[in-house]
Amino acid sequence: MPEGLTEIQEAVAQAAATNTPLCIRGGGSKDFYGREPRGQVLATTSHTGIVAYEPSELVITARAGTPLRQISAQLDAAGQMLGFEPPQFDDNATIGGIVASGLSGSRRPYSGSVRDFVLGVQCINGRAEFLSFGGQVMKNVAGYDVSRLMTGALGTLGLITEVSMKVLPAPAQEMTLRCSVSADRAIKLFTEWARQPLPVSGASHVDGVLRVRLSGTEVGVAAARAALAAEEDPGGDDFWRRLGAQSIAFFNDSRPIWRLSVPSAAPALDVDGDLLIDWGGALRWLKTDADVEQIRDAATRCGGHATLFRGGDRRGAVFQPLSPVLLNWHQNLKQAFDPGGIFNPGRMYPEI
Amino acid sequence: MLLPTVLPALGALILTVLNPNLSRPELCAGSPTDEPSTMTEIRPAMTSQSTIALRESLATEFRNFLPADAVLSAYEDLAPYECDGLSAYRQAPMLAVLPDTVEQIQHVMRTCSARGVPVVARGAGTGLSGGALPLANGVLLSLAKFNRILEIDPDNRWARVQPGVRNLAISESVHALNLYYAPDPSSQIACSIGGNVAENAGGVHCLKYGLTVHNILKLDIVSVDGQRATIGADALDSAGYDLLALLTGSEGMLGIIVEVTVRLLPLPDVAKVIMAAFDDATQAGNGVAGIIGAGILPAGLEMMDNPAIRATEDFVHAGYPLDAEAILLCELDGTAAEVDAQIEQVSRVLNEHGASDVRVARDESERLRFWSGRKAAFPAVGRISPDYYCIDGTIPRRHLGTVLQRIAELSGEYGQRVANVFHAGDGNLHPLILYDGNKPGELARTEELGAKILELCIDVGGTITGEHGVGMEKIDQMCIQFDAKTLAQFHAVKAAFDSNGLLNPGKAVPTLARCAEFRAMHVHHGELPFPDLERF
Ligand SMILES: Cc1cc2nc3c(=O)[nH]c(=O)nc-3n(C[C@H](O)[C@H](O)[C@H](O)COP(=O)(O)OP(=O)(O)OC[C@H]3O[C@@H](n4cnc5c(N)ncnc54)[C@H](O)[C@@H]3O)c2cc1C
């Protein structure tokens, strides 16, 4: 077995035998995310390395503890990228943590989410069994899609040890345009653009400024630029990176930050606070002291959901509460993978 | 070794391809099959007194809340449902019901749950792996009446539809809005969106636009005990586990899909197709890798080998070069400027990889003609052979050349012709094995050859099914692809939704006992190298 894996499996077996809750941790860059972590820390950082990468296959396979920066560098050298533009909150982010937290960046509405790119995972379940789901091929419907179920499950179903992901060719050309408009106007424009076949790969609005990123061939980007008629933002690349990392000024605030995932054309939400729009309207970041219920109502009324992303009370309901049928399925699935409830208990919901 | 409800042999795929009648259950009843004699033994479905009594009492119960013509119990009414697109596997259900409201489905499920009766959902019945094969002691739940498009939201670019809506009908209904639904299985004029979700169907355009799982937002599910739940959302994600992904491709084993919200995309400005001919199939395979390696993600990238080219050309006259060993069809879409630039680039790559002829369709009608051959390839092969059997496996692209070579060798060894027509860009193979079910032994040889090809896919790091599902057909190959612990975990997932195993039992995931038996047989024939190795 590769380095680190035996120790990890033994640690899980030990925890299962003694009913010890485990807090699975990669680089810790998302310690702030979800309900309060508890349990004995089990780090994946000793289990690193890119296992397979062949650019013409568009697939990379890496051990869970591999730092994102290492993967990005390797892909970059071959002119490829992770299509979901993973947000990198700090330098320590690991690929395992990225898959487990299921967060995607600004490219998400245009090229897909983390789970869209996951092709296979290897993991250890709560019985300390080593399992392998999916694979390294583009299409695979043998067995239930457990790889994608694990994605975004915040480690509550199993400890991911290795992932295979589809990667994309990096666009030949990228350009960011900007203009000053209101949030309402930005949503209207995003909606208009999304109904046309434009090579958009990012669309955000913050502090009165709309930015749209175009990606594609040189001629394709030039043609779209002419159609949109806005000025070029020379700092575009840096802006998108910092938006993903949440290091732009907007996120520097003492108020709780909420993540609202809504239908893209939903009007600006009727909640006091400051708003940042990403994903061409489908993602709204809200800085607010408003009441939890009011925020959740605003999100559900337009068909979406709200997550307390940073700050606030992490002992309460961080994620949108589930309907009774869904909660029951969640509890049954937890039972199916982790009968002793040792993996990240309560990190997502108190019941699982 | 096979379950008593399943025929011991795999037979003719009666594919009335691209025939709208496919959506109707007459597919089975009307197909001129060469049935092995064992088939008559299971007709009519049930004979035992207790099951006849159960049928009568269940039918009476169903008629309390369903119209009389929505409950079928006479054998002649059930016959049309006795198979899906894999027509050699046949079994009439105990009863068939055709509800037309979600409340009725809930009521059916509550009733069956309470009485411990298994339920098999059926969309259009075009599945190729026997997923919708009925059970002799079960209820067949047809979703055929759920054929309405409920709501279209052009600004948020989604359509909410009932599960029985045909795949193509969705794109047709939003065409005027300049939108479409991307996944386009070759069966798209017939197959239902509910069946697409249950199989995670793919199509020609999935290389760039993804499979069903990438193009749906929300499902309404009725659970085994009749509860209704929504998973996913009108937004791009939802809270909790990704049940949307788990339910997609679950082959009717976890819940009944009663509503689907699909994502719509703007129609591309321009689509152009290149046809490249090669003197050597391996070169064509390398051409595929070359295109992807050059950083281009075509909308579609399909390959046909010489037997497939000949059969097709004879049938639809698509303009394919008859002397080519293989052709590639590469479609590029986007804005006019972008497509022109990529056409040039792809043409260059194909020439560099030794294409003997590279042609860009001059206009829309030629583009459609080039595609017409690919789309009609299955029925075209059906014309040159009494029967054929469609295999579906995926491999890493870099093995395309060697795997095609090995399939050709196997074809020689078994004395069965094979035509290849497939989604090359995704590495998703569809070898079509030609055979004559009336010739003694051919069917068995075909079945064995098919199994060999699937094992070959596993050996090079691939999978036994890319898009057609496991169903009943590939249940034994699951034992090769997965180890016992992983299979046990699949069973635990199933139990999380259906603890009594009433939803499509016996499909998709083999029991461990079945696998033990299968492995013993397999090793006994000396066919499985290194039987002790774990196989993923
Ligand atoms: C000529 C031909 C070409 C094909 N080409 C392709 C192709 O290019 N790509 C591809 O992916 N497939 C292809 N297929 C296979 C088939 O069309 C797909 O698998 C399709 O998705 C099946 O849809 P259906 O409505 O016919 O489902 P059915 O055959 O009726 O059912 C398939 C499975 O789904 C379950 N199911 C159906 N509806 C529901 C529901 N509402 N809720 C829960 N479970 C349900 C059934 O129980 C069964 O297990 C082709 C088939 C043919 C005959």
Could you characterize the architecture of this molecule?
The complex is a heterodimer of chains A (352) and B (536). Chain A is an alpha+beta fold. Chain A has two domains: 5-169, Uridine Diphospho-n-acetylenolpyruvylglucosamine Reductase, domain 3, CATH 3.30.465; 173-310. In chain A, 29% of the residues lie in helices and 25% in strands. Chain A is built from eleven helices and 17 strands. Chain A has helices at residues 5-18, 68-77, 95-101, 108-111, 114-117, 146-150, 183-194, 218-228, 236-245, 292-301, 324-337, and strands at 22-25, 40-43, 50-54, 59-63, 80-81, 118-124, 130-134, 159-166, 168-169, 173-180, 200-206, 209-216, 231-232, 257-261, 274-278, 283-287, 305-310. In chain A, the strands form five sheets. In chain A, strands 3-4-8-6-7 form a five-stranded antiparallel sheet. Chain A has a four-stranded antiparallel sheet with strand order 11-12-10-13, sandwiched between helices. Chain B folds into five domains: 4-142, Uridine Diphospho-n-acetylenolpyruvylglucosamine Reductase, domain 2; 149-266, Uridine Diphospho-n-acetylenolpyruvylglucosamine Reductase, domain 3 (2-Layer Sandwich), CATH 3.30.465; 268-380, Alpha-Beta Plaits, CATH 3.30.70; 385-473, Alpha-Beta Plaits (2-Layer Sandwich), CATH 3.30.70.2740; 475-521, no CATH class. Chain B has a seven-stranded antiparallel sheet, sandwiched between helices. Chain B has a five-stranded antiparallel sheet with strand order 5-6-10-8-9. Chain B has a four-stranded mixed sheet with strand order 1-2-4-3. In chain B, a hairpin with a 4-residue loop joins β5 and β6 (158-161). In chain B, α10 crosses α12 (336-352) and α10 runs antiparallel to α15. Residues 1-45 and 524-536 of chain B have low confidence and may be disordered. The interface between A and B is large, with 87 and 96 residues. The complex binds flavin-adenine dinucleotide (FAD). Flavin-adenine dinucleotide binds at residues 15, 17, 84-85, 120-128, 131-132, 143, 163, 185-187, 191-192, 194-196, 198-199, 201-203, 251-252, 256-257, 378, 467-468, 504 of chain B. Flavin-adenine dinucleotide binds next to β3, α7 and β10 of chain B.
